[in-house]
Amino acid sequence: MVGMRQLELYMWVGQRRLVLERHDFYVEQVKARVLAQFQDVAGEAERHSEAEYERLGSLPGDEGSDMVEIAEIASDKGQVFYSLLSDLKKQMLLGALAGLYHQWDKDLRDFVERELRQHLKPTDAGKIAWDPNVGNVFDMLAEFGWDCRCAAFFRRIDACRLVVNGYKHGKGRSLDDLGTRYPEYLDDGFTKGTSWLLAPGYLDHEWLSISEPQFDEIADALRQFWVEFPERLYLDRPP
């Protein structure tokens, strides 16, 4: 169109390969170096209980101790150990997810800023790319011709954003939105993702919970974003 200038976002093959390699490395190493340590939580708790039973039963001067009582104490210690280890695993999953999402978010904004700087003032490019509301970045991509919100992967990316914000800030709008739109990532201790109690004002940030399969699903969605990102996007705008 006469009098218009064309802006371009170019996802060159090297850039796409870089973000995918970084993403894959992060996921692989989280599984190998972190999550692999929590594969047998129940077994570890049982062994902890057995060790406590042996320790308490062998203390000097306890020959006449009630072994039933000792067994109950050891069992209680095993349950506490199981609870603490399970909570640690949950925190590791949420922390790993937050790190994964933040890297994806920064990679996206870095890419957008770098491409826009070829057409706009550096300050304008930075303002658009680093808008605090990532939804505005999605809107910009839609203006360029790619509405990622319509893609199959987007639901999990949106859920991930709310999970990470809830994990970081606790109670608030993100947690409320999560309860309304993606309750499967909240566990109230009685039922996961289906309780009528999962409503704004009642939610507790301690209910945030993701399973390893859910972590994998979100990681796959973040990866698919880069796989499906068009090589070239264009926008005509006034000079």
Question: Could you give a quick summary of the protein structure above?
Answer:
The protein has 239 residues and is mainly alpha-helical.
Shape: elongated
- Determine the number of helices (DSSP H or I, runs of at least 4 residues): 8
Name the poorly predicted regions.
Answer: none
Q: What portion of residues is helical?
A: 55-70%
What letter string, H or E per element, gives the SSE order? Answer: EHHHHHHHHE
Spatially, the strands of the biggest sheet line up as 1-2
Question: Over the alpha carbons, how many angstroms does the gyration radius reach?
Answer: 24 Å
Sheet/helix structural class: mainly alpha
Characterize the structure shown:
This protein has 239 residues and is mainly alpha-helical. It has one domain (40-231). Helix content is 62%, strand content 5%. The protein contains 8 helices and 2 strands, in the order E-H-H-H-H-H-H-H-H-E. The protein has a two-stranded antiparallel ribbon with strand order 1-2. Helix 1 (13-33) packs antiparallel against helix 8 (212-228), helix 3 packs across helix 6 and helix 6 (154-169) runs antiparallel to helix 7 (173-181). The longest helix is centred in the middle third of the chain and has 50 residues, at 67-116. The chain is elongated and about 90 Å long. 19% of the residues are buried. The mean pLDDT is 88.
